[in-house]
Amino acid sequence: MEYKQLGDSDLLVSEICLGTMTYGQQNTVEESAQQLDFATDRGVNFIDTAEMYPVPAKPETQGKTEEYIGAWLVKQQRDKVILATKIAGRSSRLKWIREGKNQIDRPNVETALNDSLKRLQTDYIDLYQIHWPDRYVPLFGAPDYDIAQEHETVPILEQLEVFADLIKAGKIRYLGLSNETPWGVCEFCNLAEKHGLPKVVSIQNAFSLSNRTFHLNLAETCRFKNVGLMAYSPLGFGLLTGKYLQGIPENSRLALFAGFGQRYDKTNLNDAVQAYVEIAAKYNLSPAQMALAYVRSRPFVTSTIIGATSLEQLEENIGSLDVNLDREIVAEINAVHAKYPNPTP
């Protein structure tokens, strides 16, 4: 396991980050603890969660993921774990989170953070992230930017001022973004520098063989602003493992939660996945490990977020650290990408 500095923070995070959005829905508290033990025993020191988890989001389960992690965390040496969680952004669909009034303003941020601290049984969060922007941006595979959907938003400067106070109070160490755009990253960084406020150190965005849009503009933005990428969905919701090529397996996420994979129900995806699976077979690699190795190999990726519902899946995913892709394999991957560019943006 290698450890990398997250942006310009002093956090040295494992190149694999354990994602936890199945805890409380597909995984019990006992299974969650087993996964956490397994991952940390293998050098993972970086855990990511969110106040809205587990997924799919429901009022009766919201917060359970943090509760499960808290039950495990209280038994650990706290300074050995780098813990990241997220405040839900503005959303009309999550009416059970603070009665749907979930703007990124002072009352909501303070309430969300204190509730997360209580569930996680800790007195500080290493990395506190805005799950998605308070302002309108196209999200989760939505098409082009639509000016008609713009709405009133909490000014970014005001958001930064709230987080600055919480960092001063010792409740947060660093601030991160998620599902952000190049403009958003620049605005957060520029305002922080101008006003002497805490700078964001990370961004958590989707990046995978089937979604390489980060390469286009965000890679440059994050390089020059020194913002580290935590790549989520590196297996494209599991599709890049190839397990869905012959249909939807019983008890898989797409089988259990109909409609949840809309972001991945796109033209050319199966053709692209089939081509990637064939490359993996040619080089005696598992498709999952090849996909994860590709993400890990990108210079702008600080940590790759993996998730699993079983220890077998988790072991395979962590085992991708032993896979290094040579130029020949990457060239074949790029040829597929050229034919089927970004089927799941």
TrEMBL record:
Origin superkingdom: Bacteria
Domain NADP-dependent oxidoreductase, chain residue ranges per copy: 15-336
UniProt keyword annotation of Kinase present: no
A Pfam family hit: Aldo_ket_red
SUPFAM superfamilies: NAD(P)-linked oxidoreductase (SSF51430)
Entry keyword set: Oxidoreductase
Database matches in Gene3D superfamilies: NADP-dependent oxidoreductase domain
Protein name: NADP(H)-dependent aldo-keto reductase
Organism: Microcoleus anatoxicus PTRS2
Top-level taxonomy: Bacteria, Bacillati, Cyanobacteriota, Cyanophyceae, Oscillatoriophycideae
